[in-house]
Amino acid sequence: MDVAFALWMPCNVVLQKAGEGTTISIIDPHDIIKDDGLKPLADKAQTLLTQALEQTD
C-alpha cells in the first residue's frame, strides 16, 4: 500500500483553544473512506490517529 495516498486526504484534525489547554478533535477515517478496497488504509490511519491522540493525555 502506498502511504503517499494520505496526501490526498483532507486534514481532519482540529485544534481549539479551551481555557488553559487545547481540545483536539479527530474524525474517524472510516467516515470519509467508504471504498472497501481502502479499508486497510482507513484502519491504519485510525490506529495512528488514536495512538497520537493518546499521547497527548
Key terms for this structure?
single chain; 57 residues; alpha+beta; two-stranded antiparallel sheet; 21% strand; elongated
Describe the protein.
This protein has 57 residues and is of the alpha+beta class. The chain has one domain (3-54). Helix content is 28%, strand content 21%. It contains one helix and two strands. It has one helix spanning 39-54; strands at 13-18, 21-26. It has a two-stranded antiparallel sheet. Strand 1 (13-18) and strand 2 form a beta hairpin. The longest helix is centred in the last third of the chain and has 16 residues, at 39-54. The radius of gyration is 13 Å and the shape is elongated. The model has no long low-confidence stretch (mean pLDDT 82).
Helix and strand layout, with pairings?
Layout: E1 13-18, E2 21-26, H1 39-54
Antiparallel strand pairs: 1-2
- Number of E-state strands: 2
C-alpha end-to-end distance: 31 Å
Helical/strand content category: alpha+beta
What is the oligomer described by this structure? Answer: single chain
Order of helices and strands: EEH
C-alpha geometry: elongated
**Which runs of at least 5 residues are low in confidence (pLDDT < 50)?**
none
What's the helix count?
1
Residue share in β-strands: 15-25%
Q: Radius of gyration from the CA trace?
A: 13 Å
| Strand line-up of the largest beta sheet | 1-2
Roughly what is the average pLDDT, rounded to an integer?
82
Biggest sheet overview: 2 strands, antiparallel
Helix content: 25-40%
- Total tally of structural domains: 1
